[in-house]
Amino acid sequence: MMTSVIFDPILPLWVLAVLAAVGALSVFVALRRGLAGWGWRGLAGLVILAALAGPVWQTENRGALSDIVLMLVDQSASQQLSDRADQTSVAADALAARLTARPNTELRRIVVRDNAGDGGTEMMAALSEAIAQEPRGRIAGVIALSDGQVHDMERAPDLPAPFHLLQTGRASDWDRRLSIRNAPAFAILGEPVTLTLRIEDSGNAPQDVDRVPVDISVDGAEPQRFAVPIGRDIELPVTLPHGGRNVIQFSVPEAEGELTDRNNAALVQINGVRDRLRVLLVSGEPHPGGRTWRNLLKSDASVDLVHFTILRPPEKQDGVPVSELSLIAFPTRELFLEKIEDFDLIIFDRYQRRGILPSLYLENVADYVRKGGAVLVAAGPDYASADSIYRSPLSQVLPASPTARVVDEAFVPQISDVGQRHPVTSGLPAQESWGRWLRQIEVAPDAGDVLMTGKDDRPLLILNRVDQGRVALLASDHAWLWARGYDGGGPQLELLRRLAHWMMGEPELEEEALWAEPAGQSLRIIRRSLSDTVGPVTITTPSGNTSEVTLSEQYPGHFETVFQGMEMGLYRLTQGDKETVVGLGPAAPREFEETIARPDALAPLLAATRGGALRLEDGVPGVRDVRPGRPAAGRNWIGLTPRDAFETLDVARAPLLPVWLVLLLAGSFILTGWLREGRR
To answer: What is the DSSP letter of 338?
Structure first.
């Protein structure tokens, strides 16, 4: 029970102040005039002012509230190392028993786990949420059972009581970590990119080791081993072997006695891109389609274009002296013998044999294709003539032979069944609204895939692979009609762009491909194929276990599934003759960047609340009461601040000056003063 005197004024305070001033002035005047009753009049005024102030005798019936102690139990990934999980469990149970045995104390046990992504241990977020659910006036202390590796200290709340860390781990713990810095997302093929590699030992590490072996593997191939010094940044130049995603794995063998090997490996995934795509365009004669090819290739900033148009063939006799011509000589020997390997793609646009390129040069072009080059033939009536480029050594690699017939009839290009599955033509927009072409060269396919057809289902676009190279034949010279918007136009730019990039081996346009896209803990596995069905994909996990998954067709030629990976590291995917590797999880999980238990991260919070950090390997500390503002930790003990919180059950009020008493006192004092001032 609690009693007190409170005031509940009848009039506003400023009115009471005015009345007090008037009363004091009246008493002062009476005193100056020598009136004998001035004191009694002053007492009467005080009684009236006291009555107007409303003094009340208040009695509260209070109930005591218990103190609340928050216990944060860290169960993050780093807490599973060594025997930390057992240390935490035993200490939490022992501490809970001691706290619940204390009088007037309640325990709130909060489990702290990893962030869903790679945010690490977000203990402060869990603590803020727990404090928000409790009255701050009842919190007597916060105790964290953790290794001290907390990754969200910027969210630390303002605590009303001491914060203590009971630290897991051992003083003898040590760990070795490999880290990669400066890993870009993209790199140019053929040019080295510099990665910074560092190996660090932390904790009570052996002092007699200065170099350790490092294994480096690209796309899961046989690793190469190098000896690397400890504690120094090593600049490592890496040249990517191919376009698309390159997965580079760095690993250090596990040493005896170290805490974990989870941070002994790092995965770096870099996309290889070409700096410049070099294209040679040879136009046999000026025609509207020649500008279409030129505009397409010049609009791509990644393409270096060399374009020659044969304006004056050898048989042209117009009597103009050679000395008066301003034409540049066609450097045939330089382009087709000496520097042909420098080009990624050669395009023959309506080219016919006129003696400009000897058979030896065209034979060299055929060899260039077999060794990995690419040739695209955009055919016009020249392809059906006796001077056709087909009637040269190039016939060894071209996918279709001419029948010598030119079809001069309008038709709307159509995508074939194979073309619906091929990335060059799959998904081209609004096929129903395509405009007509007016000419097609009849050809007989010898090899390859027919992606588009023309008049009466005649082959229009044929692609083929020859040894390591690629060849394409477009059996019409009227693709430019789409660019001009004739009859509604069509996706000419997108079609020719895809065709050119497929010829140059861009990975995203491969018709037979297997790859995976990591997202969190899952892999989105994608298989692209010209076949109607594909077999299951065999997945080899980082630990060496294998499993098979079945893919479902999402749209023609595109098969997908999602695989939930339980481990972080390098996954190998195999389906038929297709194989790829992909890294799941971050290059260096945040939970294992620092594995040695230490209180450094929590030091500001410990200092602000005067709490302490004690090792659990020294035993579970005792618990004492400490006053607010006093040191709250010592040797093998931690302190809690009793809050003495309460709740008010009921309140009783009684006026100190009843009305009758006020009237009696005021009247008595006034009457006494009047009598003192009277004649009697």
So the answer is: I
Yes or no: say if 176 and 255 are a contact pair by the CB < 8 Å rule: yes
Which percentage of the chain shows pLDDT scores above 70? 95
Q: Are 620 and 636 in contact (CB under 8 A)?
A: no
Q: Distance (Å, rounded) from C-alpha 138 to C-alpha 106? A: 10
Q: What is the pLDDT of residues 465-509, one digit of tens each?
A: 999 999 999 999 898 898 888 888 899 888 988 888 898 888 888
Residues 6+ away with beta carbon under 8 Å from 516:
523, 524, 525, 526, 563, 571, 573, 580, 582
CA–CA separation, 323 and 311 (whole Å): 16
Cα–Cα distance measured from residue 244 to residue 343, given in angstroms and rounded to the nearest whole number: 20
- Mean pLDDT value across residues 247-259: 89
Strands 139-146 and 163-167, how do they pair? parallel
User: In this structure, what are the phi and psi dihedrals at residue 535, rounded to the nearest 5 degrees?
Assistant: -80, 180
pLDDT in tens, 137-160: 899 999 999 999 999 999 999 999
Q: Are 37 and 26 in contact (CB under 8 A)?
A: no
Task: Determine how many CB atoms are found less than 10 A away from the CB of residue 220.
Answer: 17
In the sheet that 139-146 helps form, which strands lie side by side, from edge to edge?
A: 105-112, 67-74, 139-146, 163-167, 613-615
* pLDDT attached to residue 680: 45
Tokens matching residue 313: 């063939």
Point out which residues pair with 519 in neighbouring strands: 522
Decide: 474 and 377 in contact? Cβ < 8 Å: yes
Per the DSSP assignment, residues forming a β-bridge with 651 are 60
Q: What are the chain's domains?
A: 2-63+648-677 (no CATH), 66-172+597-644 (3.40.50), 174-274 (2.60.40.10), 277-315+328-503 (3.40.50.880), 513-584 (2.60.40.10)
Chain length of the chain? 680
Q: What are residue 524's DSSP bridge partners?
A: 517, 562
Distance CA 287, CA 382 (A): 12
The label of the residue with tokens 């660019």 reads: 483
Separation between Cα atoms, residue 305 and residue 318, nearest integer Å = 31
| CA 343 to each of CA 280, 329, 338, 426, 480: distance values in angstroms, whole numbers, following the listed order | 7, 20, 11, 27, 25
What's this model's pTM, rounded to 2 decimal places?
0.66
Report the greatest alpha carbon distance in the chain. 159
Q: Please give the Cα distance from 550 to 562 (Å, whole number).
A: 10
> What is the 3 state secondary structure string of 271-335?
EEECCCEEEEEEECCCCHHHHHHHHHHHCCCCEEEEEEECCCCCCCCCCCCHHHCCCCCCCHHHH
Residue type, 319: G
Mean pLDDT in residue range 321-335:
64
